[in-house]
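Before any further analysis, backbone shapes were mapped to integers, which produced the following:

***
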Amino acid sequence: MHAEPELTELTPIPCDVFVRYGMWFQKRYVGEVDPGRVVTVERAPAGGGWFLVRLDDGQELSAAAVVVATGLNGLAEIPEALRDLAPEGPGPAALVSHTSHHTDLSPYAGQRVAVVGGGQSALESAALLHEAGAEVQVLVREPRVLWGTKPGLARPWTQRVARPASPLGTGWVLAAVCKTPGGVRRFPAAARMLLFRRALGPSGGWWLRDRVENIMPVRTSTRVTHAEAEGPGAHLELAGQGGAQTTLTVDHVLAATGYRLDLDAVPFLSPAVLATLTCVRGSKAPQLSASLESSVPGLYFTGSLAAPVFGPMMRFVAGTEFAARRITRHASRLSVPR
């Protein structure tokens, strides 16, 4: 049995390694996991402050606490200009799809594909499409593509002081918000939303750059203003630098356009539960207590839906320890329904 190679900051973590880590963690620290899909979370009709959770196999569970930790499932955002290409939603015949809909891009071999976006998801998908044999163009709104810098494993102390390290990168702002997510929660709502929108803007990993630059067309300062089906493909109207208008016809559009943090898109929360949730001002994300409890007692949120309250670290695995400790400490005091 061969030993796994050492992983460092210079190692792009392969997906299979990341998945194996998750499975190892579950077996060692969690135990048995029910693979059933939750279809409804609602307040139990008998009252008592507990929840009724229904699964897709018909099971009904009673719970004193529910933790919504579903990641970005169902929150994919496709811009309005592209939505006419998928009137029935994503599927094999749709002319547009979101990067989160795919685990394999090889079916697009030989097709013309426009990738919309300038972040890691867009750039890595473009590279994979090209390597699978697709003809790719990348459409980026910003005037240039930002690339991460190759990390140094042994930085001199002057650099460590000037730009301290954090789980999300270097710099005092990132270091501060990663060190004290609870402190971020005390910021005014407007400041938190500004941090949420501005921190960690779209960029590509340093290790990906050679697979994209000078390999395929990357059109910056370009946005899609209109899209419609044209024969078997999609006709895109584009606005470029200075408002210059151009068109592009492709077989498929891949939207790497991020996610909307919208409680209405969480499919299993009942209308009655949704109606009693308080949102962060200026968003549709839940307002949370210091223990990540929402305005509905016993209902907790973590992951990206908690990022507008606790900062950008909640969008990543790095934020799970903070969230898990706070939630378990608080939820363990709740009485168990009988």
Notes: The domain at 15-74+264-331 is CATH 3.50.50.60 (FAD/NAD(P)-binding domain). The radius of gyration is 22 Å. The CA atoms of residues 149 and 206 lie 5 Å apart. The mean pLDDT is 89.
